[in-house]
Automatic annotation (TrEMBL):
Stretches assigned to the GFO/IDH/MocA-like oxidoreductase domain: 183-312
InterPro entries given in the database record: Gfo/Idh/MocA-like_OxRdtase_N, Gfo/Idh/MocA_oxidrdct_glycsds, GFO_IDH_MocA-like_dom, NAD(P)-bd_dom_sf
Annotated GO MF terms: nucleotide binding
Residues of the Gfo/Idh/MocA-like oxidoreductase N-terminal domain: 31-164
Protein name per the record: Gfo/Idh/MocA family oxidoreductase
PANTHER family xref list: BCDNA.GH03377 (PTHR43818), OXIDOREDUCTASE FAMILY PROTEIN (PTHR43818:SF5)
Amino acid sequence: MAGLALAGSAMPAVTILNPNRAFAGVNSETLKVGLIGCGGRGSGAANQALKADPNVVLHAMGDIFKDKMDSSLENLTKVHGAKVKVDEGHKFIGFDAFKKVLDSGVDVVILATPPHFRPEHLTAAINAGKHVFCEKPVAVDAPGVRKVLDAAKLAKQKNVSLMSGFCWRYHEPKRASFGKILDGAVGDISAVYNTYDTGTLWSFPRVAGWTDAEYVLRNWTYYTWLAGDHIVEQAVHSIDMMSWAMGGKLPLSCVGTGGRQVRTDALFGNIFDHFAVTYEYENGVKGFHHSRQQANCENSYLVETIGTKGRAMVNCARNVHEIYGQNPWKYEGVQNDMYQTEHNELFASIRSGKHVNDGEFMAQSTLLAIMGRMAAYTGKRITWNEAMNSTEKLGPDTYSFDMKPPVVEVAKPGITAFS
C-alpha cells in the first residue's frame, strides 16, 4: 500500500490514553521511535506515529540509501518540527542500519524495508524488547513466515506490542462489515471472491555508478526474492480480507495460474503480471482470488462474501460496504483514516500495557499469498501443510552493493518445481 502524503493524513476521532501514564517495558515518559526503511510507506508510518501520541519523538532512522533517508527526514521535519530529533549520530546507513537503530535507545520501531528483510528485522526487534509496527507482507517465503510466527510468540512473552500493516483491519467500515459477516449476516459462507486488479508500478531507470545490486534493490518490487511477487506484496490485502471473512479458518489447498502477458521486458525482473488462485476450504467452500498489474485494463479492488442468506460487498475502490439478502445492511458510520488509527491504537496499547499482537494473522495471511504464488508458479495443487513446511528460501543471507544479485528465471507452470 502506497504511503500517504505527510500533510494529508487526518487525525481520526479516537481516544488516546494519558501519555504520562507509566507503561510496561519503558522507563521514560517520552516514547522514542526508530524508522527502519525510509521510503514512502515508512515515511508515512513515521508521520502517523508522530501524530498518534503527544509525547512521541522520532529518535533514529536507518536505510541502505542516504538519499531516501535525507528526503524522509526533510519532509518529516517540515510537518512535525521539534518532534523530529534525529541528530547526525542517529542517522544510520547500510545493511546493518537496523541493528544500529535498535541499539540507539528507541522504544518503538517501524519496519518498512522491502519484505525480504522483514523476518530478520522483526526477530531482532522483538529480541531487543522493542514495540513494533511491521508493514505487510511479513515475509516472501515459508521459512520467513515461520520465523515471524516465532517472533510473534516471543513478543507475547516479552509483553511488547506487535502491530501489522494490514491497514484494512483498522478501517471502521471494514470492521463493521466483517463483524456482520462473522455474526452470520450472510449465513453459512459458500464462497469469497476477492480482487486486486490495478495498473503498473513505479520503476527507477539505471543511473551511472549504480551496481547491479543497487539497481535491483531500488527496483525491488519486480524481484520475487525481495517482494514475493505482487500477489504477496500488494494483493495480500485482499487475501487477508478473504481470511478475515472466513474467521481465520485455513484452506486445505489451492490451485492457481498466472504469468507475464504485458510486462515481459527484463526491466520487470522475474515477477508475473497476473494471478488467479482458487483456495479450497472444508465442506467445499471456495476462495477465489484474482490480481493483475496491467495498464489500461478494468481495475477492481473488492471482497464479496457469498452465503446461504445473502452476500456482503466490501469494495475498497468505491467505498461500498453493504449486505444484500435476508439481512440487508449498509454501513453509514465513521469514515476513519485507517493508517492513523493503526498507530493511535498501537501507542494506546503501549501506554495502557494492554499490548496488541497481530503476529498470527499477519503471518497466516502472508503465507496464504505465498501459497497462491507457489500454486501459480508450479501449476500444482499446493496444500496448506506443504506451503507452511516449504524449504524454499528466496534470496541471499548476506548483502552488499557489490554482490551479484540472484538471477531467477520467470516461473513456468508445469516446469518450475515446488520445494
